[in-house]
Amino acid sequence: MDSWKKAAVLGCITGGALLFMKKRYAAGVLATGAGLAVLASEYPEKFEQVRKALPDYFDRGMQVMEMAGKAGKRISEAAGRSAADAWDEIGG
To answer: Model's pTM, two decimal places?
Structure first.
């Protein structure tokens, strides 16, 4: 990759990150997208591999979120039961 392309990609992604930190989300997405477009034009085969793998990543992410939700529900139920038991012991 030419040095000017590296500078363009780095500048766009850095600018996008700064815009996100300043809560200018639309501009951040636009700047980051421009950097990724330059990167994709240089390495199209890598981006094709990533595009094909995205559904698997989303499925795994959903499984993790479901497990976290179930664990949170169990923890809250256990906390509620123990608090009620403690209240009964006190004589409430």
So the answer is: 0.54
Helix (H), strand (E) counts: the chain: 3, 0
CA distance 79 to 58: 31
Domain ranges of the chain: 1-42, 54-87
Cβ(35)–Cβ(9) below 8 Å: yes
Please measure the distance between the N-terminal and C-terminal CA atoms of the chain and give it in whole angstroms: 72
Question: Could you tell me the pLDDT band of residue 1, with boundaries at 50, 70 and 90?
Answer: confident
Q: What does DSSP assign to residue 92? A: -
